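Q: Could you fold this chain for me?
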Amino acid sequence: AGVVVLKTLSEALADGDPVYAVIRSTALNQDGRSNGLTAPSPQSQEAVLRTAYGKCGISPGQVQYVETHGTGTFLGDPIEAKSLGKVLASGRSPDRPCAIGSVKTNIGHLEAAAGIAGLIKVALSLKYQAIPPSLHFQNPNPHIPFDELPLQVQRTLSPWSRGGGPALAGVSAFGFGGTNVHAVLEEAPEISVTAVADEGKTSNLAHLLPLSAASPEALRALAQEYKTYLKEENVNHPSLQDICHTAGTRRSHYEYRSSFVGSSQSEIIEQLDLFLQSPDQDEGIAVRNEAKQRPRLAFVFSGQGSQWWGMGQTLLEQEPVFRKSLEECDKLFSHHA
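A: Sure. Below is the predicted structure, expressed as structure tokens.
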């Protein structure tokens, strides 16, 4: 099995998700009556390619790499290569052949999961801007006229050559029943990461790292993983604020839970250490109380008792829902004043 998470680009960017690649278009058709399973229809393959690139307005000549169906068959591969070469030749400079490869050289034919394996390979290649080699390629199929086609089999791990434009790739997958599919992928847009709030304002704030698991043993193992991760010296690490936010809002919460509070990574690591070194295996672990109704969170500012100038200011700056509600209240009070 292979699994990918799909999301509209606008939503992914708004939510700050890591984007591996953008699917510009997909197309599918059917072989119709052909000479058999190993002899697919070249006309149908050409048609699905033209449809895919036509839908997204990308010239086939701009594509730098295609993940082929590439099963290594004596008859099927030449049909695929000739159909691909005929379409990709459109608008392509003779000195810029399109690289091709197949993940089946790495992991074999995964049958129903073969298509998604190819998609994952290309998404990773676009993410890291490198094209891996097609393994075990030594002697080309004599029925594929590579000297006449704008194609070359990728033999080495190479940086992605864009040719002055964005990194573009195609993924082909053909089903046993005669279904042909082609997807057009583009590199993810550059995302400028901006802090939610000025670092000087949030440096003294405490962060909450909530962890949970299906058993006490699994919870301790998870705490150890977070401790190891936080101790790594990696310049690409996300901020402590982002790590805690993700743990709280982007993870499933299980029955056995613990939480760790600190204003710095060293403080969180110290809290994790105390938890892991505790001789009492149940210390610091809370078991979820099954409630019929999920409790709701409320912020209460009574106007009486303990308060200070600027209280709630960080919430106002960082939480859109809180800010909107407060602004609505302000309008009501101003109207009646």
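A (continued): The first strand starts at residue 21 and ends at 30.
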